[in-house]
Amino acid sequence: MSPKQEVLNVGIDLGTSRSSISASNGQKHLVESFVGWPLDMVARKVLKKDVLIGKEALENRPMLDLHRPLERGLIKEGSDRDDEAVRELLKHLLVLAGAGPEERGDLKIRAVVGVPAEALRANKKVLRNALKGLVDNTIIVSEPFAVAYGLEELLHAMVIDSGAGTTDFCVMNGRYPTDEDQRTLTQAGDSVDEQLATMVGEKYPDAKFTVHMVRDWKEQYSFVGSPKKAVKVTVPVEGKPTVLDITAEMRAACESLLAPISETMLDLISRVEPEYQERVRQNIILSGGTSLIANLGTTLQKELDQVGGGRVRVVKDPVYVGADGGLSLATDAPESDWEKLPA
Ligand SMILES: Nc1ncnc2c1ncn2[C@@H]1O[C@H](COP(=O)(O)OP(=O)(O)OP(=O)(O)O)[C@@H](O)[C@H]1O
Ligand SMILES: [Mg+2]
Description:
Elements: E1 7-13, E2 18-23, E3 28-32, E4 35-38, H1 41-47, E5 52-53, H2 55-59, E6 64-67, E7 70-71, E8 74-75, H3 80-96, E9 108-115, H4 117-122, H5 124-131, E10 137-142, H6 143-150, E11 155-162, E12 167-173, E13 182-185, H7 189-203, H8 211-221, E14 232-237, E15 240-245, H9 247-255, H10 258-270, H11 274-281, E16 284-287, H12 296-303, E17 312-314, H13 321-332, E18 339-340
This protein binds adenosine-5'-triphosphate (ATP) and magnesium ion (MG).
């Protein structure tokens, strides 16, 4: 008999804007979910690389064919580049954790991968293909479930994970969640950015700005409810740096999330067994980058007053909570829960 093969467990959170890995060797890494290929021979000569990932890809975007592997909660598939983008991103995360194809040797790699709930339904095949040869075994789960597992909130809890591409919901009933326990909305960070860009463009037609600038403004000044102070940003208008007041636009763009999130939250609560609804209402967890919008948690909590009250808390460190949850799952999962991938 051969000696027992060494195993590395990893949790991967595959996100629209950021992806992270947390491995049983203690490695933790975060990358922006962007993959880019040099546009031509000149770009390749300047960049000295065949493919760029993460921040490096974003910073060099004028020289690249830039791809985001996920959009609106789905893994993009169809074109070769789309299929390759998700594989390159996964490979990069594994390389960062010291488990890339070249350095892994005969290490057995088991990966729990968290994706938006919709991708779990629609994109399992493309994800399995992307993982082939990179890892030996996988369990693909929804992002909010990975978060719930990481926080050990497995019973009578609801996780609302609001990221860039989607807001994902998962009710925990003390077992693996089913489709009925989960929902996905495309109202999330990216849709706020789009609305904010449109509204600012309408109010100040001569102002020049990019979606990247709009995202920065949002990350600095986002809020719902009454403003604490005016939101002012500086942008070029006819070439001249000009201060613009975007308070009302910021509020309206961020508040566009309130109705869809609170409706879905209340609907999911109404489907919980009546005797447990109160406990779920008292245990709602908001995670993901978009949970950082000022007052979002307290405003959603107020919505619970119409059904008897409850509590919404915002996760303190949303960056690695999904990847860490995936790693805990990988550590706990029995052999029979793993899917074996061909080499
Ligand atoms: N301080 C902040 N205020 C408001 N939004 C923020 C803040 N910081 C980050 N965000 C937004 O959070 C989003 C990224 O969150 P997160 O990393 O959870 O998403 P993701 O996991 O990549 O996406 P998804 O889960 O939808 O696939 C982006 O839209 C980003 O602009
Ligand atoms: Mg996410």
